[in-house]
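HUMAN: Mind sharing a backbone?

ASSISTANT:
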Amino acid sequence: MKHRRSFPDVLAGAVFVLIGGAFAAGSLGYELGTPLRMGPGAFPLLMGLIVAALGLAIVVKGLVAGEVVAFGPVPWRAVAVIVAALIFFGFTVRGLGFVPASAVTALLTTLASSRVRPLTALAVAAGLTVAGTLIFVVGLQLRIPLVGPWLGF
Protein backbone atom coordinates (compact mmCIF):
# COMPACT_ATOMS: atom_id res chain seq x y z
CA MET A 1 0.00 0.00 0.00
CA LYS A 2 1.49 3.31 -1.09
CA HIS A 3 1.17 6.37 1.11
CA ARG A 4 -0.28 9.42 -0.54
CA ARG A 5 1.52 12.67 0.14
CA SER A 6 0.13 16.15 -0.04
CA PHE A 7 2.76 18.70 -1.00
CA PRO A 8 0.49 21.70 -0.15
CA ASP A 9 -0.10 20.32 3.37
CA VAL A 10 3.61 19.69 3.90
CA LEU A 11 4.49 23.17 2.64
CA ALA A 12 1.79 24.90 4.73
CA GLY A 13 2.78 22.94 7.83
CA ALA A 14 6.43 23.83 7.32
CA VAL A 15 5.51 27.53 7.11
CA PHE A 16 3.60 27.21 10.41
CA VAL A 17 6.58 25.47 12.02
CA LEU A 18 8.93 28.24 10.84
CA ILE A 19 6.64 31.06 12.00
CA GLY A 20 5.93 29.40 15.35
CA GLY A 21 9.60 28.64 15.86
CA ALA A 22 10.55 32.24 15.07
CA PHE A 23 8.05 33.57 17.61
CA ALA A 24 9.22 31.08 20.23
CA ALA A 25 12.88 31.95 19.61
CA GLY A 26 12.15 35.69 19.63
CA SER A 27 10.29 35.42 22.93
CA LEU A 28 13.38 34.03 24.66
CA GLY A 29 14.86 37.54 24.60
CA TYR A 30 12.18 38.62 27.08
CA GLU A 31 11.66 37.61 30.68
CA LEU A 32 9.44 34.51 30.89
CA GLY A 33 8.47 34.88 34.56
CA THR A 34 6.69 32.15 36.49
CA PRO A 35 3.37 30.41 35.83
CA LEU A 36 1.66 32.66 38.40
CA ARG A 37 3.41 35.89 37.32
CA MET A 38 4.06 35.52 33.63
CA GLY A 39 6.54 37.86 32.03
CA PRO A 40 6.29 39.53 28.62
CA GLY A 41 7.92 36.55 26.89
CA ALA A 42 5.61 33.83 28.24
CA PHE A 43 2.62 34.37 25.95
CA PRO A 44 4.61 34.65 22.69
CA LEU A 45 6.59 31.54 23.68
CA LEU A 46 3.42 29.58 24.37
CA MET A 47 1.72 30.72 21.16
CA GLY A 48 4.85 30.07 19.11
CA LEU A 49 5.11 26.54 20.46
CA ILE A 50 1.41 25.87 19.81
CA VAL A 51 1.66 27.17 16.23
CA ALA A 52 4.82 25.11 15.62
CA ALA A 53 3.16 21.98 17.06
CA LEU A 54 0.09 22.47 14.86
CA GLY A 55 2.37 22.96 11.87
CA LEU A 56 4.21 19.76 12.68
CA ALA A 57 0.89 17.91 12.87
CA ILE A 58 -0.05 19.29 9.43
CA VAL A 59 3.29 18.15 8.01
CA VAL A 60 2.82 14.65 9.42
CA LYS A 61 -0.75 14.50 8.09
CA GLY A 62 0.49 15.62 4.67
CA LEU A 63 3.17 12.93 4.64
CA VAL A 64 1.03 10.08 5.97
CA ALA A 65 -2.57 10.57 4.85
CA GLY A 66 -2.51 13.46 2.48
CA GLU A 67 -4.65 13.86 -0.54
CA VAL A 68 -2.84 14.09 -3.83
CA VAL A 69 -3.64 17.66 -4.74
CA ALA A 70 -1.76 19.83 -7.15
CA PHE A 71 -1.44 23.54 -6.76
CA GLY A 72 -3.84 25.46 -8.94
CA PRO A 73 -2.98 28.68 -10.66
CA VAL A 74 -1.63 31.35 -8.33
CA PRO A 75 -4.03 34.31 -8.05
CA TRP A 76 -1.35 36.94 -8.69
CA ARG A 77 -3.84 39.83 -8.75
CA ALA A 78 -5.06 38.95 -5.26
CA VAL A 79 -1.53 38.49 -3.94
CA ALA A 80 -0.38 41.83 -5.37
CA VAL A 81 -3.43 43.77 -4.16
CA ILE A 82 -3.27 42.38 -0.62
CA VAL A 83 0.47 43.02 -0.33
CA ALA A 84 -0.06 46.57 -1.66
CA ALA A 85 -2.87 47.14 0.86
CA LEU A 86 -0.68 46.03 3.77
CA ILE A 87 2.19 48.24 2.61
CA PHE A 88 -0.24 51.15 2.22
CA PHE A 89 -1.49 50.66 5.78
CA GLY A 90 2.02 50.45 7.20
CA PHE A 91 3.16 53.65 5.52
CA THR A 92 0.02 55.73 6.12
CA VAL A 93 -1.46 54.75 9.49
CA ARG A 94 0.49 57.42 11.41
CA GLY A 95 -0.15 60.17 8.87
CA LEU A 96 -3.76 59.45 7.91
CA GLY A 97 -4.82 57.99 11.23
CA PHE A 98 -6.22 54.58 12.06
CA VAL A 99 -9.75 55.06 10.73
CA PRO A 100 -8.92 56.36 7.21
CA ALA A 101 -5.97 54.00 6.77
CA SER A 102 -8.08 51.01 7.86
CA ALA A 103 -10.95 51.97 5.60
CA VAL A 104 -8.75 52.38 2.52
CA THR A 105 -6.86 49.17 3.31
CA ALA A 106 -10.11 47.22 3.61
CA LEU A 107 -11.35 48.70 0.33
CA LEU A 108 -8.09 47.77 -1.38
CA THR A 109 -8.29 44.18 -0.17
CA THR A 110 -11.78 43.80 -1.62
CA LEU A 111 -10.22 44.50 -5.02
CA ALA A 112 -8.45 41.16 -4.70
CA SER A 113 -11.67 39.48 -5.81
CA SER A 114 -13.36 40.32 -9.07
CA ARG A 115 -16.70 39.11 -7.69
CA VAL A 116 -17.14 41.73 -4.95
CA ARG A 117 -19.68 44.44 -5.71
CA PRO A 118 -19.04 48.07 -4.72
CA LEU A 119 -21.79 48.18 -2.07
CA THR A 120 -20.48 44.97 -0.51
CA ALA A 121 -16.95 46.38 -0.55
CA LEU A 122 -18.10 49.52 1.27
CA ALA A 123 -20.02 47.47 3.85
CA VAL A 124 -17.01 45.23 4.48
CA ALA A 125 -14.68 48.23 4.77
CA ALA A 126 -17.03 49.97 7.22
CA GLY A 127 -17.44 46.84 9.32
CA LEU A 128 -13.72 46.10 9.44
CA THR A 129 -12.91 49.71 10.27
CA VAL A 130 -15.39 49.81 13.15
CA ALA A 131 -14.25 46.40 14.44
CA GLY A 132 -10.57 47.33 14.16
CA THR A 133 -11.13 50.63 15.92
CA LEU A 134 -13.03 48.95 18.76
CA ILE A 135 -10.45 46.20 19.15
CA PHE A 136 -7.18 48.07 18.74
CA VAL A 137 -7.84 51.69 19.70
CA VAL A 138 -10.61 51.29 22.30
CA GLY A 139 -10.01 47.76 23.67
CA LEU A 140 -6.22 47.46 23.51
CA GLN A 141 -5.72 51.23 23.87
CA LEU A 142 -3.07 51.51 21.17
CA ARG A 143 -1.82 55.05 20.88
CA ILE A 144 -2.71 55.58 17.24
CA PRO A 145 -4.62 58.72 16.30
CA LEU A 146 -8.07 58.05 14.87
CA VAL A 147 -7.53 60.78 12.28
CA GLY A 148 -3.96 61.78 11.50
CA PRO A 149 -2.17 65.06 10.85
CA TRP A 150 -2.14 64.61 7.06
CA LEU A 151 -5.87 65.31 6.95
CA GLY A 152 -5.55 68.60 8.85
CA PHE A 153 -8.09 67.85 11.60
User: Anything to note?
Assistant: The mean pLDDT is 90.
